[in-house]
Amino acid sequence: MRSTCYFEGIRHLVQWAGIDTRFVDALPTALVKPFSGSAARAMLIETMKSQGVDSFPALVAATIQGSTETTFYVLAVYFGAVGIQRARHAVGCALLAELAGVIAAIAVCYWFFA
Q1: Does the predicted model carry a pTM greater than 0.85?
Q2: Residues in the chain with pLDDT < 70?
Q3: How far apart are CA 88 and CA 97, in angstroms?
Q4: What is the pLDDT of residue 5?
């Protein structure tokens, strides 16, 4: 079963808004990346296998892979190393930066590859 089957609802919402839906197939990589870089790489490879290496979703997924960070890993390791215990606001800011990276990756791919 393709991973894009889970994102058909998002595809319909994006289509209803009148936006091109080709980037939706790259969203699994974007959603997994804050938790695990290895899982995001596996999702990238799955996108490349199902859509093709030179397809637009694969290019978006690869750009997302390079422009975002494993947020929760970084917060846990680096904040733990220096003894920071209250990271509530840092998590929100990091996830906002993650969202900005994903949106920027999608925009750049439309700019360069669409």
Answers
A1: yes
A2: 1-5
A3: 15
A4: 65
Which residue do the tokens 């390791």 mark? Answer: 77
Find out whether 10 and 27 touch, Cβ atoms under 8 Å.
Answer: yes
Query: 3-state secondary structure string, 5-61?
Result: HHHHHHHHHHHHCCCCCHHHHHHHHHHHCCCCHHHHHHHHHHHHHHHCCCCHHHHHH
Distance, CA of 56 to CA of 108 (rounded, Å): 12
Domain count across the chain: 1
Segments forming the whole domain that contains residue 38:
3-113
Residue 14: CB atoms within 10 A of its CB come to 17
N-terminal to C-terminal alpha carbon distance within the chain: 27
Token pair listed for 94: 């990091």
